[in-house]
Amino acid sequence: MAETPYDTDNIFAKILRGEIPSHRVYEDEAVVAFMDVMPQGPGHTLVVPKAPSRNLLDADPSTFGPLFTVVQKVARAVKRGFGADGVTVMQFNEPASGQTVYHLHVHVIPRFDGIPLKPHTGGMEKPEVLAQNAEKIRAALRS
Ligand code: 5GP
């Protein structure tokens, strides 16, 4: 069966092109990180390679070094910035796995002992809360 092609009009492609706003916390030549608008917990961040791929399955392997370097930076920053006990890193591939946006991305979520994650793609967070949380992560990335 033929693979589904990459859709250049997916929502993260639009965010990467600056056509849709996002609360960006990090950017380099290969990777961008911004707040998830339907966070599963405070500080839920998405780390996204600029190179187009639908998910991990069709990505060029050269994507993963720069991508996971930033995943680690952001994981450390959310842990410090939110005083978290741990960090969950998640990544979904195709609808059966829970993927809903078809541009490769990694979820980085600060975790607190005894507090479960909210549902995946649950409620929208207020923009002012996302802005405050983004600033905490930027500050932790600077320190
Ligand atoms: P997936 O289900 O594909 O692994 O995750 C997609 C994530 O993108 C979800 O957690 C969802 O909340 C988030 N999301 C969906 N639309 C937008 C959007 O327009 N902006 C941002 N920043 N996040 C989004």
From TrEMBL:
Question: Where does the record place the HIT domain?
Answer: 11-118
Q: Where is the active site?
A: H105
The membrane-spanning stretches of this chain are none
Entry's Pfam families?
HIT
Q: Please name the InterPro entries in this protein's record.
A: HINT (IPR039384), Histidine_triad_HIT (IPR001310), HIT-like (IPR011146), HIT-like_sf (IPR036265)
> What superkingdom heads the lineage?
Bacteria
Give the GO molecular function terms. catalytic activity
- Histidine triad motif: where is this motif? 103-107
Give the record's GO biological process terms. nucleotide metabolic process
Q: What is this protein called?
A: Histidine triad (HIT) family protein
